[in-house]
Amino acid sequence: MRLMRASCRRGTAACPIRSCDQRGWKAEQPAGRWGGAGSPAPTLQCPSPGVLPPSLPAMAHAARLLAALAALLAAAATGDARPSKIAVVGAGIGGSAVAHFLQQHFGPRVQIDVFEKGTVGGRLATISVNKQHYESGAASFHSLSLHMQGFVKQLGLRHRREVGGRSAIFNGENFVLEETDWYLLNLFRLWWHYGISFLRLQMWVEEVMEKFMRIYKYQAHGYAFSGVEELLYSLGESAFVNMTQRSVAESLLQVGVTQRFIDDVVSAVLRASYGQSAAMPAFAAQDTDLPKKDIKAHLPQGAMSLAGAQGSLWSVEGGNKLVCSGLLKLTKANVIHATVTTVTLQPTEGKPLYRVRYENEAGTGSDNYDIVVIATPLHLDNSSTIAFEGFDPPIDVVQGSFQPTIVSLVHGYLNSSYFGFPDPKLFPFANILTTDFPTFFCALDNICPVNISASFRRKQPQEAAVWRVQSPQPLLRSQLKTLFRSYYSVQTAEWQAHPVHSPHTPLPRFTLHDQLFHLNALEWAASSVEVTAVAAKNVALLAFNRWYQDLDKIDQKDLMHKVKTEL
Predict the structure, then answer these.
(1) What sequence ranges are listed for the domain Prenylcysteine lyase (predicted)?
(2) In angstroms, what CA-CA distances link 177 with 256, 260, 298?
(3) Which of 52, 212, 391, 504 is found 20 to 30 A from 191 (Cα to Cα)?
(4) Quick check: 218 and 559 in contact, CB under 8 A?
């Protein structure tokens, strides 16, 4: 809303406002959303002679209030009132973030119900070992995870102190790459083994990441995308879309990275991050957490530059899952512990209405919602519990499989002899990645609890420590004995962590129906905590823009030019 000049109703020489000259103020009402172009704008009448007038800023403020009231009345008359109830299915980082963003856009009066069949936090989870809690899901984030940074700041959470440790890559027989305590020596080793491949990789990743960061500017200006392909095209045009159809290995070979570097380094990072090989699509490997988090966490310090890692890692004191519970509490969302079974389109006039049916230990229930956001995977192999009924044409959800990930927290003594160090006191590494061999585990980390005191120190290799082992299958007893001399306990977490990325997988859409959205569609292009938060913001903007028919904010072309113009 803005103020424009209009004729003063009194317009007399006796008007006490200096130099009135029949110039008063009226509030210009925006067209379309709140009442249409033809709606009359309210006017302000000049005070009577002899009465001290309010200041012009006060009059302008009063005009804004009057216009806002008129807008609300017009909205009620035209059916453009805000939604009354919104359903979010899933209380992981996606569901928690989208509930937060939806409330930001629609206001605190909208009731938001969040359905969760398991534990709030989803893939952000912890496991208790010896009365200490350890991350079993996403362990840390990069400083460029802007949405996650914003959540932590808004919730008043603290960053957890990182305890450093040396890393190496193991090929089943020996270490192909080892970190030292000297940065220049690390760089020399990279150059000696792989030439300038690490520089070529750095430039490739930096170019892609620079374009990916545009999404934050688009979202700050209210733009949204109805499909994954539209979002990627807005960031990097056809080059980004093509990266979902081309493998990592093919893309890197094209920019001059050697096959040996791909086999030794890139494949190790992808195995630790996705449990997949360099045959996965190139864009998925550009995930904002992958190149920055995992290379820094697992590779020698010199190799950090391979992904252009110019910032630092961080995690949340007390556990990363506190972000999810904190957002839901901040939003005052109603968390319903139940499994959603059906979403049915109700026969109504005007805006659609969706009936959500659910079941839990208390029985079954259902309720109607104006907007429904699915913030959980719909692509699990024949195990999706949500059915969509009453839609014509039927809702077509892209089918695909997910990569199972097993995280085992082992409290015990590492068998350093398996890695070529008979004396455990001489074993220098806290993080071990693997190439394609051995096949029974992908990564091994000496981890710290989620609460770290100032005097905390990482356990030495000869001491009993908590090790996190990532593997594609549950570890057999014989495999545990291979990795550990002895152990006190083994606790595991298993989930469908990431889609099995394939260059031939079609890109899904966020919009399933008019006000029915699938947030997790973006993880079929790239999968990480920050990417999920980006998808949550996109879906919240998409729902808001579609609700008020602000179609100019959806799937716009040449957004960089538009954003520069708006600035």
Answers:
(1) 177-556
(2) 20, 12, 11
(3) 212
(4) yes
| DSSP per-residue letters across 45-110 | PPPPTTSPPPPHHHHHHHHHHHHHHHHHHHHHHHT-PPPSEEEEE--SHHHHHHHHHHHHHH-TTS
C-beta separation of 525 from 507 below 8 A: yes
* Residue in this structure with the two tokens 């979010």, named with its chain if needed: 88
- 334-336 and 166-170: which strand pairing? unpaired
Query: pLDDT per residue over 524-552, tens digit each?
Result: 888 889 999 999 999 999 999 999 999 99
In angstroms, the CA 50 to CA 429 distance is 85
| Distance set, CA 309 to CA 20, 201, 299 (Å) | 61, 12, 12
Count of CB atoms situated within 10 Å of the CB of 444: 24
Question: What's the one-letter identity of residue 334?
Answer: N
Residues 67-110 pLDDT 10s: 445 445 545 544 568 899 999 999 999 999 999 999 999 999 99
Q: Which amino acid is at 172?
A: G
Beta bridge partners of 7: 23
In Å, what is the CA distance from 125 to each residue of 411, 452, 472?
Answer: 18, 17, 18
Please report how the helices 146-155 and 93-106 are oriented relative to each other, as an axis angle in degrees rounded to 10.
70
3-state secondary structure of 278: coil
